[in-house]
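Lecture 7 notes: from sequence to structure.
We start with the chain below.
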Amino acid sequence: MIVCRECGTQNDDDDQFCGGCPAFLEWSGEHVPEDTPVEAAVEEPERAGIVTRIKHAISGDELPPPATTDRAAGAPLAAPAPGSAAPAPSGAPPGDDRAAALVAHPLPDEPGPSDDRPPPGTGARPPAAQVPQAAKPRPKVQRQPPSRRINPGDLVCGQCGEGNTPERKFCRRCGNSLVEAEVVKRPWYRRWIPQRKPKQTLRAGARPERGTGRDAARQARIFRGKVLGKIGNVKRLMALLAVVGIGVGFAIPSARNAILDGGGDFAGRVRRIVSPTYSNIPIDPARVSSSSNSPDTEAADVTDGNTLTFWLAAPDDPSASVTVTFVETTDVKHVLVHPGQQESGGKVVRPDPRPRELLFRVTDDTGTIIEVAAQIADEDGFQTVDLDVDAAVSVETVVVNCFPDPVIEVCPITELEFQSQD
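Predicted structure tokens for the same chain:
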């Protein structure tokens, strides 16, 4: 804790300027431990002992006045000259030296008054002239980020940007006046969020207060009223927006159509993202071709929708492929591959050869070729291969190698189903 010597205000250890006056704490502050009381204890005047009061009561003498605070502060009493008796107190009879015997004489070994004190009777020494000194320069103020978290209700200094507690009158970093400082307001969105109350620190042996049944019911009613009030405000706002939208729709037909179209498009986009659906792209059998065909098979068999027919290239065709050209450019999302020769129910005939790796070459409307390599698992049924090509014109499917031996490059394909997103 730093106590200002100018006004006595208590400040934190990291404050640079006093909160009660614009004093710079490095010059006018004093570091004080936290447990030190702020006000110094006032010394009471010394009172005469019981023995002294009994002696004066028997003799009839008056008690000497108690020692004042000036003497406790260090003001010395005038000592009698060496060899002379101490003066008798006022009110003592002449010749009675009993009161003088109570006055202590200085010992010979005690040092006398210091040389810098003025001689008795001359009064206080006038102050000597001082040479004017240059004023200490105040630290330059640069706007910097605040050194502590700024809470709602704090005062933000307009000169250096430091946050100050509401009770301060001057900035804790630059000493600028906070009369015109900006008060930090609570954001509007935080008003809707219930705030947690500060944790209560209990004393040793104390227990948290628990409300009675009546208090708990009253607090529940208050909380329910606040919640219902918030819900009511939201309902009123939504009703107002609905009325405004209906009014604009009836007043401006073009705006009504734009709102309906935009709402439909938005709903469609959301539906396609959340729950997408796909449909098969129609294929013209005349637009399906292959590099070669084995006896009793045709290229169009790979797109006829029948899982009991298949396409198989000639045995001497090392780069067997089948090409599908679409009727019109379309966005191809993926392709469903029915590998090998399949029986009823989609079961692959084994140990006949079946595709292990396929290469898809997709050509778009700009003539660009996009290649997608796919590893086919040795499983029954169909497998999905993502292509995700927009404005596709044709797709060429190349057989790279087959099961059970990668050396085999010719194997049948039952079906290829190209699909687009609805």
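Points to note: Helices lie at 25-28, 50-59, 69-72, 98-101, 213-251, 253-274. The first helix runs from residue 25 to 28.
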